[in-house]
Design brief:
Layout (H helix, E strand, L loop, with lengths): L3 E2 L4 E5 L2 H15 L3 E2 L2 E5 L2 H6 L3 H13 L1 E4 L7 H6 L9 H9 L2 E6 L16 E5 L9 E5 L3 E8 L5 E9 L3 E5 L4 H18 L2 E6 L7 H24 L3 E5 H10 L4 E5 L1 H14 L6 E6 L5 E5 L5 H8 L9 H18 L2 H19 L2 E2 L1 H4 L8 E2 L2 H13 L1
Parallel strand pairs: 1-3, 2-4, 2-5, 5-16, 7-14, 12-13, 12-14, 17-18
Antiparallel strand pairs: 6-7, 6-15, 8-11, 9-10, 15-16
Bound molecules: NADP nicotinamide-adenine-dinucleotide phosphate and magnesium ion (MG).
């Protein structure tokens, strides 16, 4: 059989620990037999990031901007324990943080559904994709514990020295105050990323905030979303047959619990932090959650939502064949290949990605799965396999 060719390359960002081990197996058994992989390889393994003072991470970000598509393995974010373990020169920032910053992108997370793992929320038939604005608000706050009675004020001094001053509260006793901010540019880019993602997937966008109470702060989010939609996306949405819908955040939450899914839920930073955990937990396993970073210029970087699965890696180092679930890693590759296929107009590559996803899920739906899913499956799993056996089962199906 002749291998499928790729017109243009994708950026491949290798990673750490158990996911790095499986990454290699996935390439060897599920991709390379069928596709002549055209990749620019960047080793984002912790040691190499340390050796290159993170230069490799910035190079990888540039490659994603240049090529338009990237696929990333999970990576360790260094901390004191890792410094000791890997004998690092320095503590480096999170590579995902660097990539997000360089691409000015938004992360979208979506659960993968299979028939025999029931979602805890029975109305959800299709994935709810969550887009979290990852800038500002309470994550860049400034707080004071006030010692006694006094006046709390909000002051803004512009670069030309003019002052805007408002009283927050005349406080009659000790208490707490907090200042938070956001930037129009960041909100605008967040809105663009959301609309871009929705167009790509042909799904509606819901956005919720509390503009009835926070008339200026949340009101600004609502206004910018509306402005970006009207001026840049309205016609494209009409053509695609999809909608943008704004509602109050509490109404959005109530509707989410009753909807059938298949939408993008755009969330402010804190709402996204909280609600993404709710959706992940209701949908089963972290290993069935995909993640894609979308830039406002339409660059896409695909990865799994989970980390490097450190505990499994230590067992693997002792010789154990662990039952680590590779589904989200496989879907990171199929997502990137399908995107490449779409941009290059190479339908045979798109078809390959679709078939690999189907084979991956068919094996589970027919009762063969890794341990994390076996704990949730109904009807119960027929066969619990380790990662290598599972990948072999998928490969056997691809052969057919
Ligand atoms: P983790 O790697 O996501 O794993 C946490 C636990 O979740 C595992 O111990 C395992 O539970 C379960 N799990 C996650 N993925 C699984 C899979 N594919 N198959 C089966 N079970 C799975 O999180 P962590 O252990 O907190 O973090 C490890 C490293 O990953 C850290 O250094 C962190 O910095 C990094 N990290 C990277 C990313 C990223 O690159 N996107 C994201 C998060 C964390 P059991 O042990 O109970 O089986
Ligand atoms: Mg959270």
């Amino acid at each position: 059989m002749e291998k499928i060719k790729m017109k243009n390359a994708i950026a491949e960002l290798d990673g750490d620990e158990m996911t790095r081990v499986l990454w290699k197996v996935i390439k060897e058994k599920l991709l390379e037999p069928y596709v002549e992989l055209n990749v620019e390889y960047y080793d984002l393994g912790l040691k190499n990031r340390d050796d290159t003072d993170d230069k490799v991470t910035y190079e990888a970000a540039d490659a994603i901007k240049r090529l338009g598509v990237g696929v990333k393995c999970a990576t360790i974010t260094s901390n004191a324990a890792r410094m000791e373990e890997y004998k690092l020169k320095q503590l480096t920032p999170s590579p995902n943080g660097i990539l997000r910053g360089e691409l000015d992108g938004t992360v979208f997370r979506a659960p993968i559904f299979v028939k025999n793992i029931q979602c805890n929320v029975s109305s959800w038939k299709k994935p709810i994709v969550l887009g979290r604005h990852a800038y500002g608000d309470v994550y860049k706050n400034c707080e004071i514990k006030t010692p006694g009675a006094g006046k709390a004020e909000l002051v803004f001094t512009s670069d030309d020295g003019k002052e805007i001053r408002k009283t927050i509260q005349v406080m009659r006793g000790p208490g707490i105050i907090q200042g938070i901010h956001n930037l129009d540019d960041s909100i605008r880019n967040f809105a663009r990323c959301c609309f871009m993602y929705a167009l790509d997937k042909k799904i509606d966008v819901w956005f919720g905030a509390k503009d009835t109470i926070s008339k200026i702060y949340d009101g600004n989010f609502k206004a910018i979303f509306n402005e970006v939609f009207e001026s840049e996306f309205k016609e494209k949405f009409e053509k695609a047959g999809i909608e943008y819908f704004y509602t109050l955040i509490d109404d959005a939450v109530a509707r989410i619990m009753k909807c059938e899914g298949g939408i993008l839920w755009a969330c402010k930073n804190y709402d996204g932090d909280v609600m993404s955990d709710m959706i992940a937990s209701a949908c089963g396993s972290l290993a069935m959650m995909t993640s894609v970073l979308v830039s406002p210029n339409g660059e896409f970087e695909y990865e799994a939502s989970h980390g490097t699965v450190q505990k499994h890696y230590y067992k693997y180092l002792k010789g154990e064949k662990t039952s680590t679930n590779p589904v989200a890693l496989i879907f990171a590759w199929t997502g990137a290949l399908a995107k490449r296929a779409e941009l290059d107009e190479t339908p045979e590559l798109a078809e390959f990605a679709r078939k690999l996803e189907k084979a991956t899920l068919d094996v589970i739906e027919e009762g063969t799965m890794t341990g994390d899913l076996a704990r949730l499956a109904n009807p119960p799993a027929k066969k619990i396999v380790n990662s290598w056996e599972y990948i072999d089962e998928i490969a056997a199906r691809m052969e057919k």
